[in-house]
Amino acid sequence: MSSSPDVTELLASLSGDGAPADEAVLEKLLPIVYDELRRVAHGLRLRERADHTLNTTELVHEAYFKLVDGSRAGYDSRAHFFGAAARAMRQVLVDYARARHRQKRRGAAPHLPLDNAPALLSDARAEELLALDESLHRLEAFDPRQSRVVECRYFAGLTLEETADVLDLSPSTVKREWRTARAWLAHDLQRGA
Amino acid sequence: MDAARWSRIKPLLDGVLDRPTAERGAFLAEACPDDAALRAEVEALASAHDSAGTFLDDPLLGEAAASLANGDAVLPKSIGPYRVLGLLGRGGMGEVFLAERADGLFERRVALKRVRGGLDAPSIARRFDAERRILAGLEHPGIARLLDAGMDADGRPFFAMDYAEGTPLTEYAQTHALSVKACLDLFRQACDAVHHAHQRLVVHRDLKPSNVFVTEDDAGRPQVKLLDFGIAKLLDEDDERTMLTETGLRPMTRAYAAPEQLRGDDATTATDVYALGVLLYELLTGRRPFEAPTAAQLEAAILADEPTKPSTALRHTDDDTLPGDATPERLRGDLDTIVLCSLAKDPAARYDSAAALAADVQRHQNSVPITARAPSVGYRMQRFVGRHRIGVAITAAVLVAATAFALYHTQRLAAERDQARRAATRAEQVSGFLTGLFEGADPTVAAGDTLTARALLDQGRRRMETELQSQPLLRADLLRVLGQVYLNLGLYDEAGALLTQSDSLERTSPAADPTGRAQTLTLLGTTTYHQGNVELAAEHFEEALRTTEAAALSGNVATEALMRLGLTHYHRGRYDEADSLARYIIATFRPTSREDSIVLGETHRMLGLVHSATGDFTAAAESDRASRDFAIRLFGSVHPEVATATNNLAGTLRRQGQLEEAEQYYREALDIRRRVYDATHPLVAQSINNFGVFLFSQGRYEEAETTIREAVDLNRQRLGDDHPEVALGLSSVAGLTRRQGKLDEARALYDQALAIQRARLGDDHPHLGRTLNSSAQTAEEAGDLPRAARQYAEAIDIFQDTFGPEHERTIRAQVGLGQTYRAQGRRTAAQQVLMEARDALAADADSSLRALVLSTLDTVTQ
Q: How many domains does chain A have?
């Protein structure tokens, strides 16, 4: 089994309640998770997947099974992993969008890839994402839980039920939080536009 | 916003969103009567929610992940002999680069399209030379020429085309605010270019706005340029495997696909006419004729729904990017008719050619009556009946099953997706648990050496008896996987026991996942089927289908149950039903995964069996080859599935009289099976038996008898003395002893076979009919005329029911009965049965068969 003990241990040390100690763990976890997601995505392509758009959950699951030693990891680890994956994806994508935005302002030709940055997102998506991230930061300030819900749903593509597992909430709570968070974000973005 | 205020807003917002718009005001007024500011804030949020559309609906990772998968987004320096200058676009099929020859062979810039990986490079390379010459011959101002094609260093095919600096037609029409007339002029240019290619027997197959460009000449006059002509064919050819198993790469864009393309039929010039119709629709209305939220719904609409008339579609849009003078009045009549005629479901009902379409557009522009007719009520009726022909033709049972299956095309519940995801998680846990223990045990995974694997497996089975008692569902999953492995090993009793346990655990648990349950039932049915109890197997498959139906499940689980139900029809001699099911699956099921392709390959195999049983050997050979190609592509050449398909193909070829090829495939199938199964596996026995039958048919009786007896003994050991397979073997041995003149021995063997078949297959099974017929011939030969007459008569009844009165088997049995009656001196009875045969002879009946009937009749009437 090619699982990395590091990740299993890191996950085990997460409390999951967003304590400051978790932040430090996440910082170590994120790059590993990101690299693995990337590798898995490559692997899927090499295996001649027919799907144009990869199934997100599949991607994350596969990364999980590669990174985590299932015999030692508890059920919570999976939830934490998904949470971490959600946050990792947000961070990576926002960083990417920012870099892209900067380079574009410096005047690179449109439709041509920028330097060595892989084209993760279309330009339009990248701009939207930066605005969304700002709104999400504002939301986080007064309702951190909702911000986590959005990360899980939007950045990791988790279902309501999976999100409920990850955040240890009931699915109906997640549903309500998601709906009101979405309303607030839509409103905030409309106002900003 | 602060946390305290937000915590006041949230419940109010929830309450508002729970209510219909009309009741919201009253609710808010009652909930916070004295805080207008709070009310306004909640209302603003609710309205943001309502107008948010699909905001955040699609997870961002989906898009990013796709890019990650194509991580080579960095611009390549060169592709083949071309230096890459920039990226022009990126789509489902691959990327398009701006490039120029690095070796300076010619100077102009080219658009270089590089296809994503995964295509069968050698086969593409073979096609290139021939096709490229044809394509290079397309010289038309409206067609971007194919200049070159080849492979890059990684074996990915690329195409170099004229680089057309321009914009897609639809976009061009918008940005230049073209009038309807100007749109139609450009559209006719596109038709002319398409027609030019059609006259040179090149079909585009993938016309869509992104392939229909408008460039401007030096004087600013617009010229349509069609891109990618012939490329879809280069990638697709008539290579069914490419088309069916790699849907994502299939060179076709769903929204612009014609119904026949979705059905997997060949694209013809009429297919391009259809795509032109879609293009015209979009130019005039800003919409596509069919729009749906999911691919499955879109396909269903394209296949079954009538498009909204362009004039009506226009009424429902307030798109200001449309031609300024495009009004419902302007489109009503001619343009509606022209568009709808191009979009007819039946290719034969469309314009005969792109030129005819252009000519009608021109007639309209000249105010001359057009040639296309608006669909009449009669035409629509006809279409309705045509659409439901499958339903009319097949029996109620099949219809129910097919309806369950068709749910896939009509609805896709969010619940289904969630369910599937949860199931996937658990499936991975289960297989993860098992992999370590059982790797190599399943002969479909590892070839040969099943003994140690068997020991491992039995150990796992014992562990299952004590472990996981507190987790019934996980236990059910593991039991199912174990059962499947035993099933694949041909250990049907063990498989049946494990699967029955799994089934009863799932049956009593309300939380059981329907996918798993349907899989268990299907496996249980398959096991029962192999044990020879076809009726019970059919019941399991039907229950599996009901389970998938209740949970609105789709995909390979439902399709596999349906396919296996078809196999039971086949084994019960219900060939029409089996045939309808197989055709239904092949026509509607679009594989998106490896599992899907496996099921589809098996469906082709079943269709081959049905064709073969009904005597259509040409069609049978075609289906057999298709299923064998599927299997080799999916599993490699040494694999049980390949053996089964090869075996079937051999049988068909034998019946077609292609004996050398047949013998080669028989030996190949047996060889594979001996390598992947243990020596007494029923399928090894089946291969030995079939090879024996082949030797028999070639008159090599002694070799044949030894071979078939070996198979019968294996089957007796493994399946029991009264298994239908044993009966078939006994019947073959009887035929051989008869040929060697040992008539008493033959008679005894036939009686054994008949007893088994009556007990296990029932009194009206075609296998029983065949044994009866052979036994009657033996009795006739031995001079036991009463036995011969009785058995012929019974065989004839069965043949008439299963094959029809005009079938060769029926006629030949009637001739046998006529001769027997004559030998008994029952002249009138003989005349009667022979005249019945003569009258049933089909007009196109084989001449030697007709001669046989007539000459026998002569001997009776004289």
A: 1
Nearest alpha carbon to residue B557 among B519, B600, B603? B519
- Give residue B3's pLDDT: 86
Mean pLDDT of B581-607: 85
CATH number at residue B464: 1.25.40.10
B206 is catalytic: yes
Q: Does a structural domain hold residue B542?
A: yes
Which of B57, B58, B60 to mutate to probe the A interface, most A CBs <10 Å?
A: B60
Residue of chain A with shortest Cα separation from B416: A159
A120–chain B Cβ distance below 8 A for any pair: yes
Q: Does A108 touch chain B (CB under 8 A)?
A: no
**Which pLDDT value is given to residue B785?**
94
**Contact criterion met (CB below 8 Å) for B190 and B225:** no
Task: Give pLDDT, residue B464.
Answer: 67
Within this chain, do residues B412 and B335 fall inside the same structural domain, yes or no?
no
Are the beta carbons of A50 and B13 separated by less than 8 Å?
Answer: no
Instruction: Kindly state whether residue B188 falls inside one of the protein's structural domains.
Output: yes
Domain that holds residue B840: 763-862
What pLDDT sits at residue B581?
86
Q: If contacts are CB pairs under 8 Å, which of residues 87-106 in chain A contact chain B?
A: 89, 93
Is this prediction's ipTM beyond 0.85?
no
Same domain as B303, residue B179: yes
Contact A161 B89 (CB under 8 A): no
Burial A153-178 (b: 16+ CB within 10 A, else e): bbbbbbbbbbbbbbbebeeeebbbbb
pLDDT of residue B803: 85
Q: B479 and B549, same structural domain?
A: yes
Domain check: are B209 and B306 in the same one?
Answer: yes
pLDDT tens sequence across B334-364: 899 899 999 998 888 888 889 889 998 988 8
Shared domain check, B174 and B318? yes
For an interface test with B, which of A38, A49, A95, A116 has the most B Cβ atoms less than 10 Å from its Cβ? A49
Is there a domain that residue B730 lies in?
A: no
Asked if A118's CB is within 8 angstroms of B69's CB, the reply is no
What does the pLDDT look like over B622-665, one tens digit per residue?
A: 999 999 998 888 888 888 889 989 999 998 998 888 888 999 99
For chain A, the first-to-last Cα distance in angstroms comes to 50
- Separation of alpha carbons B182 and B173, rounded Å: 8
- Nearest residue on chain A to B118, alpha-carbon basis: A48
Is the predicted pLDDT of residue B203 greater than 90, yes or no? no
What is the model's pLDDT at position A109? 35
The more confidently predicted of residues B744 and A6 is B744
Q: How many domains does chain B have?
A: 4
The last residue of one of the domains, among B369, B404, B433, is B369
Residue B522, pLDDT above cutoff 90: yes
Q: For B494-524, what is the HEC assignment?
A: HHHHHHHHHHHHHHHCCCCCHHHHHHHHHHH
Is residue B360 located within the same domain as residue B470?
no
Please name the residues between 128 and 167 in chain A that touch chain B, using a CB distance below 8 Å.
129, 138, 142-143, 150, 153-157, 159-162
Residues paired with residue B167 on neighbouring β-strands, in sequence order: B214
Query: Testing the interface with B: which of A58, A121, A184 to mutate, by most B Cβ within 10 A?
Result: A184
Q: Is residue B413 one of the residues assigned to a domain? A: yes
Residues of the domain holding A65: 5-192
B434 in the same domain as B354:
no
Please report which confidence band the pLDDT of residue B417 belongs to, taking 50, 70 and 90 as the band edges. Answer: very low
CA A39 to chain centre: 16
Catalytic residue, chosen from B206, B477, B579, B624, is B206
A121 in Cβ contact with A152 (< 8 Å): no
On whether both B308 and B273 belong to a single domain, the answer is yes
Q: What does the mean pLDDT of chain B come to?
A: 78
Residue of B nearest to A177 (CA): B10
User: Min CA distance, B46 vs chain A (Å)?
Assistant: 7
Please indicate whether, in this complex, the C-beta atoms of B59 and A153 are within 8 angstroms of each other. yes
Instruction: Name the nearest CA neighbour of A61 among A174, A171, A159, A175.
Output: A159
Contact B247 A116 (CB under 8 A): no
Q: Chain B contacts of A121, Cβ < 8 Å? A: 60, 63-64, 67
Pick B323 or B305 by higher pLDDT.
B305
Last residue of a domain, one of B539, B565, B591: B565
In which residue are the tokens 């960083």 written? A95
Check residues B94 and B298 and name the one with the higher pLDDT: B298
Phi/psi for B158 (5° steps) reads -135, 160
